[in-house]
What we know:
mainly beta; Tumour Suppressor Smad4; five-stranded mixed beta sheet; TIFA
Amino acid sequence: MSSFEEAETEETVTCLHLTFYHPGQAEKMMFRCLDFCQRQQLRADDTAKFGRDSSLCGYSLVDTRVSRIQFSLQFYRKLHTSEYAFEIKNLSKKTKLTVNQTELGYLNKIDLPWRCIICFGDYQILAEIQEGEAMDYFETHLHLAEAPILQERCLPSLQPVPENGVSPSFPLSQGKSPTEIDENEM
Length: 186
């Protein structure tokens, strides 16, 4: 047998990709303590904490408007399954955290969807979970967005669609307001 055949089977690692955006990032450099170059490996029982206090948080944001510990992410295995997930918990007493428009107050927590946008203050973070098999550790990979994440992600248009399913060929914002027509008048 060759050494290739005897080698341990490689496990894929769950990776949490986080893309950060703040409108003042160029001037204020609040992300300067984050490592955007490579993946960071954390033990499965570690809690990834994000906030201003670098002695408590592995992911430090240099901004006085950010709480000492803003939020945490905990890796876990779902009960009676082989699936892994993350839960996000708001640890800020002053700032609400939203996850895909679900608002979390202090100490509220929810499961992190496989793809979501986390917001607090002017911060926008796109979180995407890349599934893996390893149970002893997970990885984080940080990215920096140049444009606002909420606008960049092609969120569905909120323009109303008439009941007949045909969208008007003119934009509604040209000073004309929509008029109601009785269906018997058509």
